[in-house]
Amino acid sequence: MAGKLKNCPECGKLFMDMGSRICRDCLEKEDELMLKVASFVRDHPHSTIKDIVDGVEGVKERLVRRMIKEGRFVQDGIDISYPCEKCGKPIHRGRFCEKCDAEIKKDVMKAQKNAVERAVKAVAEKRPMGTGFRSKDMGQKL
Residue 45: which of 65, 74, 67 has the closest Cα? Predict the structure, then answer.
């Protein structure tokens, strides 16, 4: 895999990106922070993301969110919550709570149904009844 030369989004240093998204120095710092976060969460199992960010010096919210989404705490049986992206209710996985997820799915299904109905109507308006294609033997006596 060929690397891409880019600036580290954390420190600005130029590095060869081989898929790690940040430079080696920042990656090492991030690994240390992850260990600190894991230790904090073990000691405070019902922490919110805000609790972790406030309790671990130097850690950013996006790092904690990424750790949760990667399932870093599931194996330890730790219960961490973060807000639903739609209503703000505390959730433990995914992006939306069950209620918002159901609403979104319902809205998507309704939008798909409306799109199909509009497409069918548009086709029907462009081609009046009885002016479609005919097979070779239609209208012939057998």
Answer: 74
At a CB cut-off of 8 Å and minimum separation 6, what does 16 contact? 3, 4, 5
Q: Count CB atoms within 10 A of the CB of residue 91.
A: 18
Q: Which amino acid is at 57?
A: E
How confident is the model over 30-76, as pLDDT tens digits? 889 988 998 898 888 778 888 999 999 999 988 888 887 776 765 55
- Domain ranges for the chain, please list them: 26-80
Helix-helix angle 24-43:61-69, to 10 degrees: 70
DSSP reduced 3-state for 48: strand
Under a CB-based contact definition with an 8 Å cutoff, are residues 37 and 56 in contact?
yes
pTM metric for this prediction: 0.52
